Amino acid sequence: MDALRYPIGGFTPPDIVTPEQIDSWIGEIASLPAALVRVVGPLTERQLDTAYRPGGWTVRQVVHHVPDSHLNSLIRFKWALTEDRPIIKPYDEKGWATLPDYAAVPIAHSLALLDALHVRRVGLLGTLSWHQLQRQFVHPESGPSSLAVTLGTYAWHGRHHLAHIEGLIEREGWNASP
After folding, report:
1. Could you report how far apart the first and last alpha carbons of the chain are, in Å?
2. Looking at the whole model, is its pTM more than 0.70?
3. Which positions of the chain have pLDDT values less than 70?
4. Could you give the CA distance from residue 101 to residue 124 in angstroms, rounded to a whole number?
5. Among 16, 31, 74, 122, which is least packed, fewest CB within 10 Å?
6. 146 by DSSP, 3-state: which?
7. CA 102, CA 75: separation in Å to the nearest integer?
8. Interstrand relation of 136-139 and 143-146 (parallel, antiparallel or unpaired)
9. 103: phi then psi, degrees, rounded to nearest 5
């Protein structure tokens, strides 16, 4: 079950975050919207409504979750850049995934939102100094986090959910030729 829940493993931040690592993570964030479109574009409505693992979210819920999560990330970055170690507000991602828009709104809108959001994120991230990347916010449950490490977390987050969907497609044989 853990292999289905964490197909690429959990996020473990490197002991030392380097400028090269920052550039790599920004590249991963920049490429996520197109990768997600490539993977989910061919899926049918029935396939979108299939859970990626027993007890897990459907592909549709995952697609809607990613821009919700990454929008929260952008706001957290902006708080940390403009305030001194702000305490951020967590959100109930499981609760959000059960809201009506996750079932009713076509995924094309969340894919477009993710694309636009990542243009903004990458535009901001590419301008940050090393000093700015060391700024922190405080999560009430997990404690302080630097923007550099948080950047890595969200690069991982995109790969993590992409792997959920790719794994389901592979297990179900949906990418097999007829």
Report:
1. 29
2. yes
3. 1, 176-178
4. 28
5. 16
6. strand
7. 21
8. antiparallel
9. -95, -30
Cβ pair 59, 110 in contact under 8 A: no
- How do residues 6-17 score in pLDDT, each as one tens digit? 999 999 999 999
Evaluate whether residue 178 is within a structural domain. no
**How many C-beta atoms surround the C-beta of residue 3 within 10 A?**
10
Mean pLDDT of the chain: 96
Is 41 domain-assigned? yes
Q: Which residues pair with 51 in a beta bridge?
A: 58
Length of the chain, in residues:
178
Residue 146 tokens, joined: 């630097």
- C-alpha radius of gyration, the chain, whole number: 17
CATH of the domain at 57: 1.20.120.450
CA-wise closest residue to 170 among 67, 57, 50: 50
Provide the residue range defining the domain that includes 120.
2-7+19-172
In a domain, 177, yes or no: no
Task: Please give the Cα distance from 48 to 28 (Å, whole number).
Answer: 24
| Residue 26 belongs to some domain of the structure | yes
Q: How many separate domains does the chain show?
A: 1
The two structure tokens encoding residue 30: 């920049």
